[in-house]
What we know:
By secondary structure, the protein is mostly beta strands. The protein has strands spanning 13-15, 20-28, 37-39, 44-57, 60-67, 72-77, 87-98, 106-115, 128-141.
Amino acid sequence: MLREEYVISAKNSVYGSGEVLITSFKMMDYRKQNRNIFTTGEQVYIQIDYNALKKVKNPVFVVAVYLMDGNCACQIISRKDKFEVGEINGVGSIILELNPLLLGKGTYVCSVAIFKYLSLSDSVEPDAYQLHDRMYEFRVEQPTGVNVGLGICVHPVKWRSENG
Length: 164
């Protein structure tokens, strides 16, 4: 059973060069209240707090969401979304908005990372300032009254008919 705070497993792994540290990871609802249980389709905020111990230019922020069997459900990558933070030095925060949350019912675990660089054309994990590997567990439930399994991703769809 999940508690309202994050479940941290014994398999935790934190690594990286350490010039930038991840000091906090939060998942929040539309009211900015910390939670770890969400409903498909709702608005979710993710906040990554960091402390850059020296000046760093354009680090890449990543939130990777995994199924409990280890398969990747999605990766949210700042560079892919053309978001650059510029130069960081000292304490700061990055806030992501998922609106709507497209993940379907299930239990997931997040990795959070701040990379020195990340190329979308390279499948090898780059050097990280810091990476919290699969440390943050959360659950997604289906909307109230929906009992049919909707799958891992509840994709938005536009329907139309072309026959008379």
